Amino acid sequence: MTIKTVQSDNNQSIKIEELENHTVLTFNGDIDAFTVMQSKETINQNISDNKIIIIDLTNVEFIDSHAVGLFVSILKRAHKAETRLIFIGAEGQPKSILKIVGFNDDIVCYAKDMQEALMLPVL
Amino acid sequence: MEPNIPKNINNWSFAIKHDIAEIGGGDFILHHKTKDGILLVFADVMGHGLPAKFFSYAYVGYLRGLINLYLKEELQPDILLNLMSKNIYDDDFLDNCIFTCQAIHLKNNGELTISSAGHPWPILSTTKLTDVVKISGPLLGMMPNTHYSTIEYQMQKEERLILYTDGIFENISKIDHKKGQRILQNNIQQCSIIKNLQEMTEQLWNNQSEKFKKPFCDDATLLAIEYTPNK
Q1: Over the stretch B110-121, which tens digit does the pLDDT of each residue have?
Q2: Could you tell me how many CB contacts below 8 A there are between chain A and chain B?
Q3: Does B143 touch chain A (CB under 8 A)?
Q4: Any A CB within 8 A of B78 CB
Q5: Can you point out the beta strands (E) in chain B?
Q6: Could you give the CA distance from residue A48 to residue B96 in angstroms, rounded to a whole number?
Q7: Which of B34, B43, B51, B115 could be disulfide-bonded to B101 (CB atoms 3.0-4.6 Å)?
Q8: Which pLDDT score, from 0 to 100, does residue B172 have?
C-alpha cells in the first residue's frame, strides 16, 4: 500500500492510497479552487487506470465547481478504463451538488463507508 | 457579453437580473427564433471571472454554429443537448471547462419543452402555487452518448417560469442547495402577486440579495419568463 498526502495551510488535505484493487482519495475540509489547483496533478499521476477509484467525502462539508470539474475528469478516466468510481460518505451540500450535476446511481456508485465500498464487485 | 434577452419576443415576455462575482462572468443566455417559437439556452459556465468569461464566449460561438448547422431540422432541446454533450466529450478544448444549462423551446401557443444538463430545477409560478419543475440530466460531456429527457408543459396566460443560476443563493455561508432552492421558492411565492414582470423580478432579486447578503461568491442570473399572448 502506498500513501501520498497533499496538505495545505487551511486544514484541507488529500490522502491518496493504493490498495490491491482500489485507489482511494480521502479529502479533508472544503474542496475548492485552491484544493483542486494544489492536488490535481498529484491525483492524475497517482491514479491507476486498472483500479476502482474511491473518493471519500466523509470529512467534507463543502465542494464548489472546481471539485465538480475534478470529479468529472476522474469519472471520465474511470469510464475510459472501464472501471468504476465510488463515492463514500457524501452527505449534505456535497451530495446535493453531486446529484444536481448528474452523478447519479447509473453513472457512479455511492457507499456509506469504506467497508461497503470495498465489498462492491470489481467490474 | 452579459446575459441578455429582449423584453418581448412573440408571445413571451422576459425580465432579467444579473450580477458577477468579479470582472468577467460565465453566465449566458442564447436565444434563437424558430418557425413556431423561440429556442433558448440558459447557461452557467462553472467558475467565475475572466476564465469563465473566456469559455462562455467559446460556448456561445460553438452553440450558434451548431444551431445554424441544424437550422432546417429545428433542434429540440433534448436533441440539442445530446449533440452538445457528445461533441464536448470528444473535444479536448471544450472539455477543459464544464457548464450547466437548460435548453427550452417556447412555442407561440404557450407550449414549452425543457431539457436540463446539471442545472438547478426551474420554478413555475402561478397566482395559486409555486413549484419546482423536476427536470434533470448530467453535465454536458460527462459521459458519451447521453440522452437527455424533456418535460413539456402548457403555460397559461400570466404563468411564469423562473430560471436561475446557483450563484443566486451562493455566498460565504455556503448554504445547501436544497435549502437555497426552498428559500428562493418561498421568495417567488411572495412576489407572485406583483403583476408587472420586471417589477416582480426586481423585487425577487432584492429579496434574494437581502437574504444572502451580497457580494455573491459566484455569478448570479435570474430570468423570469411569462406567457403573454396578444400582448
Answers
A1: 999 999 999 989
A2: 59
A3: yes
A4: no
A5: 8-9, 12-19, 27-34, 37-45, 99-107, 111-117, 123-125, 130-132, 151-154, 160-164, 220-227
A6: 21
A7: B43
A8: 45
